[in-house]
């Protein structure tokens, strides 16, 4: 009997931690650095996932919207979906603010911890990306929602633009003559089905891909980097855990009326992939596969809620942005007035909607928040050493929340077959 996919991935992940711990960055076999082997294999897996994203998002949104047919269903499902995104992200942010205010990781023995923590050594690359960001950049993020050139947006991975165009395309497909509309429908349906089959193939390689990605992270960062930032690290983990093991199951149980444990089981491959890739977009094909095939949500809901959610709904990211910004403010000794906290909440919500589902996307958003509350962007240096692992965790939370959205919305649409097996 073959081991189930999520067990294979989990074992790969644990093995990767062990191997990464045993191997050092300069260990080589036959003159080849092991890290570069991990890097190569991990990149192949990531490339394969990324290759699927654009055609998958476009075909599934176009199909999802055109299947909704009349304006009514579109408005209802759209309203529920956006409502779910905003409510859960706000919950996440409030949990983040509460936990970081209670634990106060930026204050050690009553003093701001900036000097004790020391800036992470290798900040130059990130600094280039985040330097000069200001609150005005939130506008830039949303400007790209309407792309001047859809091909360029696709090539640059600007998902908001692609989503916007696909929503329009799918909507107006229902407004043309029915024979023409049907031709387009069969075409996009076929593209979508082919993309899902390619996803199945890529998923078979997930254990190898996950092993390589995680082994590389552990080999490169080791465990040392964590020590000075342990309190901050656990603050984020505790807040994320509250969201994913308290808030989400309550919503699943009482709003969705389903058994949360079954949903964790159904989503295991997607959660482990999200953890390993640190990218909700790259995980999207696997998320869709799990929600549709393992949790039993209809294609109608899945193909609408998930591609949107992968870019727009990021609970873990919103929570992290808040905790990180407040931690840095505490470490710099900034007095956090009520007004400042409200700005942080609003900016975290907006940037979590606007930033892409790619690794480290939060860092740019945090730079925007820091600028808005009057702190230097280099404050980000304080959190860099632990950012990657926290990125892995928050991405899993992002993906889990999207999947819960699909389940809950499916149930409120009267679907009976969800999580029954
Ligand atoms: N890596 C996250 C994601 O893809 C985004 C972030 O918080 O950096 O969902």
Describe the structure.
The protein has helices at residues 5-22, 34-68, 71-103, 114-117, 124-130, 137-143, 150-155, 159-173, 178-204, 206-221, 230-256, 260-277, 280-294, 299-312, 315-331, 338-354, 361-372, 384-412; strands at residues 28-29, 32-33, 107-108, 111-112. With 421 residues, it is mostly helical. The mean pLDDT is 88. The chain is globular, with a radius of gyration of 21 Å. The protein has a single domain (5-412), classed as Proton glutamate symport protein (Orthogonal Bundle), CATH 1.10.3860. The protein contains 18 helices and 4 strands. Helix 3 (71-103) packs parallel to helix 15, helix 12 (260-277) runs antiparallel to helix 18 and helix 15 runs antiparallel to helix 16 (338-354). Aspartic acid binds at residues 278-280, 314, 317, 320, 357-362, 391, 394-395, 398.
- Tell me the distance between the termini: 20 Å
Instruction: Note the beta-strand portion.
Output: under 5%
CATH class: Mainly Alpha
**Using DSSP, what is the number of strands?**
4
Shape type: globular
Strand-and-helix sequence, N→C? HEEHHEEHHHHHHHHHHHHHHH
Quaternary state of this entry equals: single chain
Largest sheet features:
2 strands, antiparallel
